[in-house]
Design a protein that fits this description.
Layout lengths: L8 E7 L5 H14 L4 E5 L5 H12 L6 H25 L3 E5 L2 H12 L4 H14 L5 E6 L2 H11 L11 H17 L4 E5 L4 H16 L5
Parallel strand pairs: 1-3, 1-4, 2-3, 4-5
Helix pairs in contact: 1-8, 2-3, 3-4, 3-5, 4-5, 4-7
The structure holds ligand Z5A.
C-alpha cells in the first residue's frame, strides 16, 4: 500500500441520525492510526468548550431560536471549532475526521427546518462562504428514514430537538444530503448505510485508500 503519511486532510461524515456516523468515525480513526497516520477525531456541533455549550443550547435548550439565529449558532460553534481545533490539526499534518459539518446545516436547517426555502438556503450559503473551510472528502451515510428510526428506538437514550421531529422532516433532511452529493460528486461519496457495520467500514476505508494514494475518486 502506498499511503502517503503527510496527512493534513479533512474528512467529514454526514447523514441522518442513526446512519452510523459516530461508529464509522471511530472505526476509520482506528484504521488510519494503525496505518501510522496521526488522526484528530471530532464532532459537530461541538469540539471546543464554547461549541459544546452551544450544542447543549441547540439540541436540548428549552427556548428555540428564530431560523436565522439557529443557523448562526451552528456556524458560530463551527467557527470556534475550526479556529481552535480543526485548522491547527490540519496545519500540523493530521487527518481530521469530523462527525457532521457544513452539509448538516444545509440538510437540517436548510431542508429540514427551512423546507428548502430559497431565502434560508442563500443565508446558509453566504455564511458558509464566510467560514471558508471545506472538507477534502465527505462520506454521506445514506439510509431510509424508517430503517434509521428502528435502529434508534433499539438503541434508546435521550432525544434531541432534531431527532424528535416528524418523519417528513427527516425525509427532507435526507433529500438535502442527497442534493449535496449530486451537486458535489468530487467531494461526496454516498455509502449505503443499510449494509452491515463491517461492509460500511470496508467501503469507507477503500475510498480513503484511493484518496490517500492520490487517485482521487
Ligand atoms: N445538527 C444540525 O441541525 N445542524 C448542524 O449544522 C449540525 C448538526 C452540525 C447532532 O446530534 C444533531 O445536531 C443532529 C443534527 C444536528 N441531530 N439530529 N437528529 P448527534 O451528533 O448527537 O446525533 P447524530 O449525529 O444524529 O448521531 P446518532 O443518532 O448517534 O447517529 P449516528 O452517529 O449516525 O449513528 P451511530 O451512533 O453510529 O449508530 C446508531 C445505532 O445504530 C447504534 O446502536 C449502532 O450500533 C447502530 N448501527 C450503526 N451502524 C449500523 C449498521 N450498519 N447496521 C446496523 N446497526 C448499525
Amino acid at each position: 500500500m502506498l499511503l502517503d503519511k503527510t496527512g493534513g486532510m479533512f474528512v467529514t461524515l454526514e447523514g441522518g441520525e442513526g446512519a452510523g456516523k459516530s461508529s464509522q468515525a471511530a472505526y476509520l480513526a482506528e484504521q488510519l492510526e494503525a496505518d501510522g497516520f496521526r488522526v484528530y477525531k471530532t464532532r459537530e456541533p461541538g469540539g471546543t468548550p464554547a461549541a459544546e455549550a452551544l450544542r447543549h443550547l441547540l439540541l436540548f435548550g428549552e427556548a428555540s431560536f428564530c431560523w436565522q439565529a439557529e443557523v448562526m449558532a451552528h456556524m458560530a460553534a463551527r467557527m470556534d471549532h475550526l479556529e481552535q481545533k480543526i485548522k491547527p490539526a490540519l496545519a500540523d499534518g493530521q487527518i481530521v475526521i469530523c462527525d457532521r459539518y457544513h452539509d448538516s446545516t444545509w440538510a437540517y436547517q436548510g431542508f429540514g427546518m427551512g423546507a428548502a426555502r430559497p431565502e434560508v438556503l442563500s443565508f446558509i450559503t453566504a455564511l458558509r462562504q464566510l467560514v471558508a473551510c471545506e472538507p477534502d472528502l465527505t462520506f454521506l451515510l445514506d439510509i431510509p428514514v424508517d430503517v434509521a428510526h428502528t435502529r434508534l428506538v433499539k438503541r434508546g437514550g435521550k432525544t434531541d430537538r432534531y431527532e424528535g421531529q416528524a418523519s417528513q422532516f427527516h425525509q427532507r433532511v435526507r433529500d438535502g444530503f442527497l442534493q449535496v452529493a449530486q451537486q458535489d460528486p468530487e467531494r461526496v461519496v454516498v455509502v449505503d448505510a443499510c449494509a452491515s457495520i463491517e461492509g460500511v467500514k470496508k467501503e469507507i476505508y477503500r475510498h480513503m485508500q484511493v484518496w490517500l494514494e492520490g487517485g482521487g475518486m
